[in-house]
Structures are given as structure tokens and as C-alpha cells.
Amino acid sequence: MVRFLLALTALAFTALAQTAPYNFNEAKIPPYTLPDPLTLSNGLKVTDSKTWLEKRRPELLALFADQVYGHGPAESAPLRASEVFTDRKALNGKAIRKQVTLYFTEDNAGPQMHVLLYLPAAAKSPSPVFVALSFNGNHTVDKDPGIAANEVWLRDPNDISGSPNRKWVHLLPDDRTRGQFAANWQVEKLLDRGYGLAVVYYYDIEPDFVGGMQYGVRPLLVRDPDSWSALGAWAWGLSRTVDWLFTDRAVDQRRIALMGHSRLGKAALWAAAQDPRFALVVSNESGKGGASLLKRGYGETTDHLNTAFPHWFGPNYKQYTGHPEKLPVDGHELLALIAPRPLYVASAVDDQGSDPKGEFLSAVNAGKVYQLFGKKGLGVTLMPLPDQPVMHDIGYHVRTGKHDVTAFDWDQYLAFADLHWGANQTPKPAPAKPETRRP
Ligand code: GCU
Predict the structure, then answer these.
(1) Residue 433 covered by a domain
(2) Number of C-beta neighbours around residue 113 at 10 A
(3) Which residues are marked as active site?
(4) What pLDDT digit, counting tens, does each position of 349-406 carry?
């Protein structure tokens, strides 16, 4: 009986969390108009990079903060760092592993984030580094026994209600998950190609559930934490990670790449839009609220984002539930804020919720801002075939398979970084053939 009642409660909660089904039919996309990144709020057109940088870019940044990701602190000093724990012979001598704790307050026992940094041991000069947030503890990134295991947040295993509102608990480090997500990170591949990797478990910055805010940085940094957002806080954490990377002479400050998957891709794009130290940016299936076009009524909706993840976006985003057409911005403008830095957008065929074509069109439309800088943008307007990357100033691929980060994805990001920064230790791979078919 108790189980039955619990099941009923679970059903009721599920119904509450349910939103209108996504549209997956191209023929049923209502007509939509994308805002023009090159039209100033006073109606004048932007025709040069100076006006873009001095006038339009600040306008767009303010719009994204006001309407989408909320307002973080006006300024942030680098975080206080612990001693750095270094092993110069990690991964059988292939890597230098460094681990540091960055404290959010003066209290060493208070909220903090843990950075895991791998650098190629063979490097003769400062290394380029990919920075990324991880969905799971740092120790899941590789089997390496030297990675300090994180405390993690999980849904309370004793709560069997199945309710989306069920409790979360903070659990002690669990060594059984060491290396569990190594396939998503490809640490040795990066190192072999001359790249470092810096990872932070995103729950350290703010745990990702309704009510998680009280355990994260938001209440510590802004007077009204509800005027910011979880995505905003994660983006902030990425910039604080770079503050610390900049203190390490073995890191090449001019070649900091940022990679983010899914919700962490949304956070990565917002971080890169605000922080020019991210010199190359990769959005891996960041979807709606990230690279994709919300106004293109295909895949995930504002309705779903605001219902399933009400803590992700700032307070004004709620008014766009069911009304993406009213949003004054869209994904292509978030991408445009990264111009003229190299930018790669990736989709997956079976990740239709993210709307691969919406991600592609967003990359195409960001191109006109790249062109202000004499760059080419994506260089194609027809969607490439699956697994056929296109790489210019903007890169794009749609991989076969599901919502994930795979070795194939990393191969493209490394080739893209080599293309723009010069290969470190391997010959530069030729950019893959552009598209051949109409989407
Ligand atoms: C959900 C959500 C997406 C998000 C994804 C993820 O599917 O609807 O917007 O990108 O989670 O982060 O894995």
C-alpha cells in the first residue's frame, strides 16, 4: 500500500514536471525571425569590428545577462588557492598532474572547488590547455589512482519515491567510480597531442538541483542570488579556474581552450562570451539555451527548460516559457559574442532535443560577425553529412550516435585547435571535406 501511494505521488510529480511534447517535424516549425546581431538597439547597422566591439557587443552581453543568464558579481578577484599537489610522473610519466583547491571564502572548510590539471610531461614550452566542467567527480575523468576523489552530490538512494523533487545528499568520495567516464575525456589522447586538460566538478560551484543554490557560490557573491542563475555561476567558476591557470608558467595563457558538453556547454558559451581569455571554444551538444536556436521551434522548448531546470536561468527567462519568439536574443548571438575567436559547434544525430540543425544554423548565422573581423565564419551554408566535420574560423560536425562526448568528438576538437594554433606534436590534419548534401 505504501509503495502504491508512493508510486501515485511519483506519478503526480511527474505530471507536474511534464511539459508540451517537443516538435520533431521540420514541416511543423512555425515561421520565425532571428534577431540581427548587427543591428544596434537604436536601429543603426554595425558595419565594422570597432562598432561591434565598442557598442553592439556590450549591448548583447547586457541582454543575455538581463534576459537569459542573470547578473553575477560586477568584479571577481582570483580565488584563494591551497598548496598545489604536483606529481611529475603521473600516467606512467606521460603527464604532470597538479591538483589545487580554490576557496570561495576565508574558511578552508567552507565551499570550495577542486581543479585537476594534466599537462604533457614532454612539453618543452608552455602547453595549450582545454578547460572543462565535469558532470562527475574529478576522479571519474581517468583511472589514474593519484586523482583525489571528490565528494559528490547524488539523489538520496533511500528515497524511493521516484519524485523529481526527491532529496539530494552529499556523499563522501567513492573510489568505485574512479575512471568511470574516462571515455568522455580521452586524457591520454590530449596529452599525446600536446594539450593539457583542466577539470572541475560543476557541483562544487553550485549543485545542480532546485535548492542547490544554498550550497554554492551564488549567495556568497551577490546580494540577490535569485537575480543570477546556476548556469551563470558555473560560467563564473570557469573564469576562476582560468585565474588560477594563469598563475602556472607551464600553461600557455594565449592558448586556453574551453570545452563544454550539454548544460555545461551552455555554461561554457556564456563563460566564453564574457571572458576573452578563452581563446578557442567548443560547444558539444549544448542545445537550447546554448548554441541552438530557440526560435526555431524544433526540439527542446523554453517551456521544458524553465519547468525541468528552473534554477538554470535568470529570473527574466521565465517570461519566455511558451514564447521563444519574444526573446530579444538567440543562440547565434551567443556564438557571435565569441568572435573572432575560433569556435567549434558539435551536434549528434540522435540528440534531436538539442536540434542539430538549429545548432548548425546558429553557427552559420554567427558568421556575419566573424566577417566583420575579416574572418570566414563557418564557410558553408548547407548542413554537412554526419561525421563530416567542417573547419574554418567556426567549425561544425554532426556525429552519428547519441548525446555524448566521444573520441571522435575529441579528434575533431584537437584537429581544430591544431589548425588554429599549429600542431604541437603531430602533423596538422587537413580540414575534412565540407558538406555535400542539402539538409
Ligand atoms: C537535458 C536538458 C538539456 C541539457 C541536457 C544535459 O536533456 O533538457 O537542455 O542540455 O539535459 O545537460 O545533459
Answers:
(1) no
(2) 25
(3) 262, 403
(4) 999 999 999 999 999 999 999 999 999 999 999 999 999 999 999 999 999 999 999 9
- If one counts the domains in the chain, the total is 1
Does residue 432 sit within a domain?
no
For residue 115, give the DSSP letter. Answer: E
Q: From CA 387, how far away is CA 333, in angstroms rounded?
A: 26
Please give the distance, rounded to the nearest whole angstrom, from the Cα atom of residue 408 to the centre of ligand 1. 21
Whether a cis peptide bond, with omega within 30° of 0, leads into 207 is no
List, in sequence order, every beta strand (DSSP E) within 156-290.
Answer: 168-171, 196-201, 251-261, 280-284
Prediction pTM value: 0.93
Residue 304 CA, closest ligand 1 atom number: 8
Mutate to test the pocket of ligand 1, among 135, 184, 263, 303 (most ligand atoms within 8 A of CB): 263
Q: Which residues lie below 8 Å from residue 254, measured CB to CB, with a gap of 6+?
A: 279
| Local structure of residue 60 (DSSP, 8 states) | H
Centre of ligand 1 to C-alpha 295, Å, is: 17
Report pLDDT digits (tens) over 69-91: 999 999 999 999 999 999 999 99
Residue 91 sits in a domain whose CATH number is 3.40.50.1820
- Which range of residues forms the domain containing residue 368? 2-421
C-alpha 363 – ligand 1 centre gap (Å): 19
Query: Is the shortest distance between the CB of 263 and ligand 1 below 6 Å?
Result: yes
How far from 219 is each of 75, 285, 371, 376, CA to CA, in Å? 15, 30, 40, 42
- With the most atoms of ligand 1 within 8 angstroms of its CB, the residue from 22, 234, 261, 300 to mutate is 300
